[in-house]
Design goal:
Layout (H helix, E strand, L loop, with lengths): L2 H16 L8 H44 L13 H9 L3 H15 L2 H8 L5 H10 L5 H15 L4 H15 L1 H13 L2 E6 L5 E6 L2 H16 L9 H13 L10 E4 L2 H4 L7 E3 L3 E3 L1 H8 L6 E3 L15 E2 L6 H11 L17 E5 L8 E2 L3 E5 H7 L5 E4 L5 E4 L5 E4 L9
Parallel strand pairs: 3-6
Antiparallel strand pairs: 1-2, 3-4, 4-5, 7-9, 8-10, 11-12, 12-13
Helix pairs in contact: 2-4, 3-4, 5-7, 6-7, 6-8, 7-8, 8-9, 10-11
């Protein structure tokens, strides 16, 4: 280890040693410490990425000098740049695949200054940087720069899955034509394979168009749920058995509808704004036309009105404890996922989520302004000591933790792509 590397280690150890003891910190300071150390870790990872980029740049410079001195183009095995990932792997004692992922992210992030800047400030981690870079792959430069700036800011207060969903819709809206080309290419790679494992088990893998994959999964889940509460099998076992029964003809597939929320302008052909499929995400306007015009596909289109300014679905209220099927669908469409901050459990019915009255019935009404989707785990957390929630009329939900920290989640925005 070089002297400079030793100095970095010593400085970090001194920094941590100078902090007040963990045991003596109050609840608020303890959580602040957690955030601060996360930023330090992010900063260290971003600095590693910068080091990898510098190694690559020096390798490229050396390759150019070699080509000039030899008077010819170097062969692949003569290029230093060809083996940068291998050198990183042996230097960090990690696999070539792990080194290649980190090296690839370093190069990709260097193409988006806003992403690299947020990473270097420690306000986003490597996973969020990866999600943004992956999501912007193939996007034209002007649109990519604007989206990178917005995504880097959005990522500072949202999880990686939330960033992926947020960015995916805007990428489709920014360049619908290219999004449709990418979709066509991806669909062309659809396939099914089976890999025999040990102990009488095999892995069945399928790469399918997203809407149909969602419909297949919901069909399997519906058969599994029909087994009843007295069934001793775990839910994963039920789904596996349901898939077998459906494919070999021992079970009749139930009618399963895929909910698609489509802007009216898109259906009228006046806009290329993407639609949204529950449990899938945004789909291109071209795919919407395909789904509408395919009589052999059991796709249910339900019109749901959204406020033109906020993009949120409008409120509905009912005078009963259990929401109707229509209100149930509307709430699940509005929320898309469990409303606990950072939770990505799909709001689709049958996925282990409930519609919870924020203010208990009958004191609180059965309406969109008092109902929110919660997964079973966070439904229990909501009623645990110290946690409080507030659901605003526009669907914005605020959670306050036992330490007094407030977190905010918003309903899905269907019309805002800016």
């Amino acid at each position: 280890m070089t002297n400079s590397a030793v100095a970095i280690d010593e400085q970090l150890h001194h920094l941590i040693a100078a902090m007040p003891s963990i045991g003596g910190a109050d609840d608020a300071n303890l959580r602040d410490r957690l955030v601060q150390l996360e930023r330090v870790a992010n900063l260290a990872q971003s600095e590693q990425a910068s080091v990898m980029c510098e190694i690559a740049e020096r390798a490229q410079r050396a390759d150019r000098e070699d080509e000039e001195s030899r008077g010819r183009q170097l062969l692949p095995h003569e290029l230093r740049t060809e083996f940068v990932a291998d050198e990183i792997a042996v230097t960090l004692s990690c696999t070539k695949a792990a080194a290649a992922r980190r090296y690839g992210l370093a190069l990709a992030a260097s193409e988006h200054p806003a992403v690299l800047g947020a990473w270097r400030r420690g306000v986003i981690d490597s996973r969020k940087a990866q999600v943004i870079c992956d999501g912007l792959a193939g996007v034209s430069h002007p649109a990519a720069k604007a989206l990178a700036d917005q995504a880097a800011e959005y990522a500072t207060t949202h999880t990686s899955p939330e960033v992926r969903r947020w960015l995916q819709r805007r990428v489709v809206a920014a360049d619908p034509g290219m999004a449709e080309i990418r979709r066509a290419r991806a669909v062309a790679d659809r396939m099914v394979s089976v890999t025999p494992l040990s102990d009488g088990i095999s892995e069945l893998y399928a790469l399918l168009p997203s809407v149909q994959a969602r419909q297949i999964y919901d069909t399997v889940n519906s058969v599994a749920m029909a087994a009843g509460a007295g069934d001793v099998r775990a839910m994963d076992q039920r789904r596996a058995d349901a898939l077998i029964d459906l494919l070999i003809g021992r079970a009749e597939p139930p009618q399963v509808n895929v909910q698609v929320v489509v802007p009216a302008d898109t259906l009228l052909g006046e806009s290329a704004e993407p639609a949204d499929v529950a449990g899938v995400g945004p789909i291109t306007s071209s795919e919407v036309v395909e789904l509408v015009g395919a009589p052999d596909r059991d796709i249910a289109f339900r019109r749901m009105l959204a406020d033109p300014d906020s993009g949120y679905l409008v409120d509905i209220a009912e005078h009963q404890y259990r929401p109707s099927a229509a209100l149930d669908r509307a709430i699940r469409a509005r929320d898309k996922v469990c409303r606990f901050p950072g939770c990505s459990r799909p709001a689709t019915k049958g996925q282990g989520t409930d519609l919870d009255h924020t203010i208990p019935w009958p004191r609180g009404e059965t309406s969109a302004s008092n109902l929110a989707v919660l997964c079973r785990h966070h439904h229990l957390l909501k009623h645990s000591p110290g946690w409080t929630t507030e659901l605003h009329p526009d669907g914005v939900m605020e959670w306050t933790s036992p330490a007094g920290k407030t977190y905010r989640t918003e309903p899905w925005v269907y019309t805002d792509t800016g």
